[in-house]
Specification:
With 267 residues, this protein is an alpha+beta fold. The chain has 8 helices and 13 strands. 26% of the residues lie in helices and 24% in strands.
Amino acid sequence: MPVAGAVRNDEEVVRMPMPGSPEVSPAWLRPLVDNLDGVPKAYRRRVPLDVLAAITAASATASLTGTRRDAAVLVLFSGAPDAGPDGGPPADADLLVTVRASTLRHHAGQAAFPGGAADPEDAGAVSTALREAAEETGLDTSRLRTFATLDKMFIPPSNFHVVPVLAYSADPGPVTVMDPAETAMVDRVPLRAFVNPENRLMVYRATGSKRMAGPAFLLNRMLVWGFTAQVISAMLDAAGWARPWDSKRVMELDDAMALVGGEDLTR
């Protein structure tokens, strides 16, 4: 399941942060920027060793057979440049999240960062992430600055080797669904909604077991799980933003999805 798909590809590491990152990311993002090496460690802690081994083997097979596909996603933080009263993210800090159309072949209906497969014309992972985000959400990429990349991660069954590209904008401007055939929803989700312990749980698929459950975020309009939830959970841990939550709250994926349906994302 995609929840277990976030595994570091040690042969192809994209280093971080990017040159100039202290100037393009605000002070409240520094705890994350300064501990980006802690992100892969954080997401690997929640994946059983045998599952990690299976994913690593699948990654190697995809590389050998030529079925591996390079991809990138945009992890866009927005919000005021000044930190909140506690020195952490300001009250208006948010993350750009989409929900994939239910008709797509892979990861249909799943919450995701905007992004996709690399094109031959792309100059690299950053170029891919920015192009895909603009195509999916109408984002004006001139209003943001990329400041770091994370290690490539392999995601079965799509065989994507994905580079998360981190970016910041004080005001990214309007975003919307550009192609309903690919994207069902676009939202700037408040960061506090991910931090809130009441919104956190572990989910697993009926085809798997509770042992394979991964972190998820139950919001009123979406359930964020799989690769995206793994990355968000790991970033919260690495930055020191996470608050204690009940990791023993475990639900089957379809049961958790059935709870989605409200309008307010600000909890």
